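Re: your question from the hallway

Yes, I did run it. Sequences:
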Amino acid sequence: MRRSVLTPYLLIAPATIFLAVLFVVPLLQTVALAFHTGGSFSFGNFTRMADDLNFNDAVANTFEVVLLAVPLQLALALGMAMMLRHVRRGRDIVLWVWSIPLGISDLAAGLVWLAILTDRGYLNTLLFHLGIIAGPQSWLTYETPVALLVAIVMAEMWRATAIVLVILAAGVQLVPKEYNEAAEVFGATPWQRFIRVTLPLLRPSIQTALILRTVLAFEMFATVMTLGGRNFPVLMSEAFNWQYVQQDYGVAAAYAVVVMAVSLGATLIYLRVLRTPAAQLS
Amino acid sequence: MTPRILAALSAFLIAGPLVPQPVAADTLFMSTQLRPIEEAQKMRDVILKDYTGKATYVPEEPAQLPVRIQAEQQGGTHTISLIGALHGELEPLTALNGIVPVDDLVTKLQDRGIPAGLLTLAKLGTAHQMYIPWMQATYFMVASKQALPYLPPGADIDKLTYEQLGDWAAAIQAKTGKRVLGFPAGPKGLMHRFIEGFLYPSYTGGLVTTFDGPATEAMWTRFAVLWKGVNPNSTNYNFMQEPLLSGDVWIAFDHVARLLDALRQKPDDFVTFPAPSGPKGRSYMPVIAGLAIAKDAPDPQGAAALIEYLTRPATQIATARAVGFFPVVKADLPADLDPGVKLAAGAIARTEGSRDAKPALLPVGLGTHGGEFDKVMLDTFQLIVLRGMQPHDALAREAPILRKIMTDTGAPCWAPDPPSTGVCAVP
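Structure:
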C-alpha cells in the first residue's frame, strides 16, 4: 500500500530533480546576479540597463514584433487549420510541408531570409527583372526601419506559424462534428459556425498555442540578429551583447529578468483572458 | 566490452595522458597567436621546418597565458621557454615578473633591421628590451580600381586625408548615385578599432585624454558628413572582403585578415593604401606580436635560438605566406609571392613608412572591461553618426561612462595618449 502511494512521486522525481538543478537553481542565481553590484544588493544593473542607448529600442522592437507577428500567426494558423479540415487525401503531406520551417533552426531561418532580402538577394533580382527597380535596393539598413521590421515579422511568421498550426490542427480534430452539424441545421452561416461554435471550442488549444508562441517570440534572437544585427536591437540580443561582448554579467542578468517578467506577464494574461468557462469543462 | 579490451584501454590510459608532452630536450614555445588548428599546423610544418633545434609549438588562449605563467611560478615547475603574444598581452607579464629582459639579443639581431619604433615599444615602458618584435598586422584601405577615376584632383592615394576620402566618396555618389564607401560596423566588425586607433588620434592626437572637447566635437561633425557617402549596409558588414568582392563597396577600411580574401581572389581589381590622415597626423593601429623569454625558463638558450630563427628574413616571409602576418624585419618579398599578399604587404609597409605615421596601440590594461570600452566608442559613433545627436550632447552622455571604466580598471594611458602617472584621465 505504502509503496503504491509513493510510486507516482518516485516516477516524477528524476524529472523534478533535473528541472530543479538545471533550471530553478540557475534561475535564482540569475535573479541574484541581476540585483547585485559589487557584492551588495542594488538596482545598479537595472539603472545601467535602462540608461543604455539601446534599451528603449530593444523594448519597443521586441513588443512591435510580438504584437504584429503573434496575432498574424494565430489568424494564419487558424485559417490553415480550418482549410486542412476539408482536405481528405494527402492531409498528412500538406501538414508535413507546412511544418518544414519547424525543423529549421532560427539561425538557418535568418540566413534564408537574409539571402532573399540582401542587396543582391533573390527579392531584388526578381524586382530588377520585372523592371520595378533599377539597381540594388536596401531593405535591411538603419535607413529603412519599416522594411526591416516587416522583414523580421515575415521571417518570424514563416519560421514559427507552424507550431501554432500543429497545436490548432490537433485541437480542431477534438471538436465533435455534431456541434457544427447542429448549427448548420439551425441555419447558421459558415462564418457564424466558425465564430460561435469552432472558436469557443478551440479556446484551450488557442491558449496553449498563444502562450508557447508568445513566450518564444519574446525570446527571439538568432533570426533577428541575422537580419537586423546592430540596427534592430531586441531584449535577447542585448542580453547576449552584455554577456559576451561587454562581459558585464550583471546587466545581462537584468535583461534576462526583464524577459522573464514580460513572458510571465503575458502567460498570466492569456491564462486569465482565455480561461475555459467552467460549463465547458464538464 | 570484453575484459581484454577493457584491460587494453586501461593500460593505454595509465600509460600517459593523450596530450603530447614535450620531451625534456624540446623548447616549449607557447603562443597566443596562430591558435586555429590550421595555423598551428602551418607553424609546425612550414614555419618551423628548417629550425635545427627541437621546438614544441603549443597555442594557448590569451586569457589563459597569465594564469598559466602564474601557476608555473607558484608551482615551481617551469615548462615554458618562449612566449609569443601580442604587445598588449605581454605587458601584464612584466608586472607578473613572468618574462626576462632580452637586451643581449637586440645587439645580436642588429642586422635584421627591426624598426626602432617597434623596438622602443617592446621595452614596455621599462629600461630593458622585454620582447623582440615577431610579426605584425594592421588595418588599411582597399579600393576597387573602378573608384580611382573619381579621386579628387591632386589627391595622392597614399597620402589621403579624411577630407579627401569624404570628397572621393561624395564624387562617386554624385556621378553614379551609389554610396560605395564601406566600414565594418556590423555586430562582429572592427569599427571600434577604427575609432580608437585611426579616427580619434588622427584628429585629436589622443583617445581617452581627448575623448571630449572642441576638437573632438569638430571631428565627429566632419565624420558625420563623411558618412553621407557611406553605404548604409555598413552596419551589417563584419568582413569588408565580402562587399568588396560583390561590388557593393568600392572603398573599404578593415583589418588585413578581413581583406585578404578579396585581394587573393581578385588581385588585379584592387589597390591598397594607408588609412587617411587628419589634422594630427596619420594614426594607425599596428597589431604587433612579440617573442619573450619566460622567467626561469628551462631552456633559455633554445628560446634565444628560436627568436633568432623566427626573425630571419626567410622565416618572416614564410610566415607571411603561410598565415598572413607580416615581417617586422627588413625582408624583400619574393617575386613569386601571392599577388594578394603582396598588395597587403605593400599597404602595411607604406602605412609605416608614411612621413606622418603615428602608431596607436590596442587598449592596454582594461582586462575584462575591454568590451565596455569598445562599447563607449561604438555608442558615441551610433549616437552622433547614425542617430544624428549633437556631438556635444553625445560626448557629455558617454564621458562619465568612460571615466567610470578608467577608474574601475585603474588603467594608465597608452599610445596615442601621453603616458600618465596614474589612471588615464577622461576630460
